[in-house]
Amino acid sequence: xxxxxxxxxxxxxxxxxxxxxxxxxxxxxxxxxxxxxxxxxxxxxxxxxxxxxxxxxxxxxxxxxxxxxxxxxxxxxxxxxxxxxxxxxxxxxxxxxxxxxxxxxxxxxxxxxxxxxxxxxxxxxxxxxxxxx
Length: 133
Prior knowledge:
The protein is of the alpha+beta class. It has helices spanning 5-17, 79-89, and strands at 24-28, 31-35, 40-53, 59-78, 95-99, 102-110, 114-118, 121-132. It starts with a helix and ends with a strand.
């Protein structure tokens, strides 16, 4: 069953104009771009370090730091919104990420998404993953 174009526009507007989680910005420091508000936002602390076993079987752990991974989940984005995020991630440099009253320096790890409509172009099941620098 094909979904009518007007229904897709209404659905896209609902998912992209939702600001329940606040505003999010990403970009070069001082030139951040407003991101669509995600439907879910999660912060995962990740330990940076190494582990190896000694000859006697003891585990040697070298813990360097704990850095946050920021996961922004989107139900739907228009092609223009997805392109805005891709442009920022393709800079391959340190980016400024703003959420709530926090500002962090991050790098983009991944931005997988699924194309679900070509007229209009809509992306679904999107996860933007950023890592604290």
